[in-house]
Write a structure and sequence with these properties.
The protein has 398 residues and is an all-alpha fold. Helix content is 78%, strand content 0%. The protein has helices spanning 6-14, 17-30, 35-59, 63-69, 74-108, 115-131, 135-160, 164-171, 178-191, 194-207, 213-246, 263-266, 270-300, 310-329, 334-361, 372-397. The chain is globular, with a radius of gyration of 20 Å.
Length: 398
């Protein structure tokens, strides 16, 4: 039986170009004062992904199917389906353009044929990989890209020789105010990704079929915690590198010079290192976003989630096609991305609350129901996410 690598797929999924950008801005503008938000995000991701994985292993179902089964009222079930399709299906189509563009920018630094051309090539590569229907191959490619990202950013940090004492001091001086709240929410939002919950439940439901459920849950929990923590460490390294280059410096980090944060420490190697990291981050998300959309939408619409099925391929194909078209035209899908972020922001607490409910009530879970500790952790996560959202809303209307 092939070893399940779903935890590394989840880590690969949340480290995209948006994560690199957000982490860079956090380090450049706030140093290590917002690392508490990243640490909370990693804790929350481990807690929620563990619930989703246990649900998938114990029931053999994806998260969409589980949600529908728990909602008997037709109207509420319809709203649930609409939210999943809009937030995950349409939202991931919007994100795909950013994923492909980020990976294309990385490759264009090595061979300048235009980001539109690279986006088309990368879209085709993602489509070929998904068309195989071999989740073991997909997982292996994503795991390799995660280790490439880790190597790039860790080497970069070591060469940068950061001020470790300043980082330690700021780590224990957390900041949360009106100026920082948007970045805090962005750090949390780029790490706790709702579509990863759908992706994880579906992947483990398929990859662990036929295995002992108890052994599968134990192995998945251990591997996921390790992989997600590694993803968080990569993000932390990006924060540290940006802090070293930009925090309280004359230069200001923006979209146009984000790669230049490595110039003072890597010289002529800076562009190549950052391009390689950006390519890896973009391609991992460009593969996982359409895959997650296919699992979520097919589950919500009661269609087959067989990776070689027509409906499944149609969904991920549309997501990739939308991403390639928008990236190729050089358009900036800001309104679509804002819609996706709003929908996902609404979906996250709903999904988290649903997980808490189903992980306590579902008769199919048996011994894999939530413990008191799991419930306490889940309630803490939901409370913090909702509280930060309310704080942000209050800051906008005040």
């Amino acid at each position: 039986m092939a070893k399940d690598k779903s935890g590394f797929v989840i880590a690969a999924a949340f480290i995209g170009p948006g994560t690199i950008t957000t982490a860079s801005l956090a380090g450049a503008n706030f140093g290590f004062h917002l690392v508490w938000a990243l640490l909370f995000s990693i804790f929350a991701t481990i807690v929620l992904q563990d619930m989703a994985a246990r649900l998938g292993i114990a029931t053999g179902k994806g998260l969409s199917a589980g949600m529908k089964d728990m909602i008997p009222q037709p109207v509420l079930r319809g709203l649930c389906i609409a939210l999943i399709v809009s937030a995950i299906g349409v939202g991931n189509a919007a994100y795909e353009s950013g994923n492909l563009t980020g990976a294309a920018i990385g490759l264009d630094a090595f061979l300048a044929i235009g980001t539109g051309s690279w986006a088309a090539i990368l879209g085709l590569l993602a489509a070929v990989l998904l068309w195989t229907g071999k989740h073991q191959w997909i997982e292996s490619v994503l795991v390799a890209l995660v280790f490439i990202m880790a190597s790039v950013f860790f080497i970069t940090l070591l060469v940068a020789s950061p001020d470790w004492s300043a980082m330690a001091s700021q780590l224990f001086q957390p900041v949360l105010n009106i100026d920082a709240i948007t970045t805090v929410l962005a750090l949390i939002g780029t790490t706790i990704v709702p579509y990863n919950l759908f992706l994880h439940a579906s992947l483990v439901a398929r990859s662990t079929a036929g295995q002992s459920k108890a052994e599968a849950v134990h192995a998945c929990r251990k591997q996921s915690a390790k992989a997600i923590s590694m993803g968080g460490l990569i993000t932390l390294v990006v924060v540290a590198t940006a802090m070293t280059a930009f925090y309280q410096q004359a230069a200001t980090l923006d979209a146009g010079n984000i790669g230049e944060q490595l110039q003072p420490v890597l010289g002529d190697w800076a562009q190549g290192f950052f391009a390689l990291g950006l390519f890896s981050a973009g391609l991992t998300s460009a593969i996982t976003a359409p895959l997650a959309a296919a699992y979520a939408v097919c589950g919500a619409l009661s269609l087959s989630d067989n990776m070689q099925g027509r409906a499944f391929r149609l969904v991920w194909g549309l997501v990739i096609a939308c991403g390639v078209i928008v990236a190729g035209l050089g358009l900036k899908p800001l309104s679509a991305i804002l819609f996706a972020q709003a929908a996902n922001g609404l979906l996250l607490p709903i999904i988290a609350i649903f997980l808490l409910v189903v992980m306590n009530r579902s008769q199919e879970l048996g011994q894999f129901k939530n413990t008191r500790l799991s419930n306490a952790a889940g309630i803490l996560v939901v409370s913090v996410v909702v509280g930060l959202g309310m704080y942000k809303l209050a800051s906008l209307v005040s």
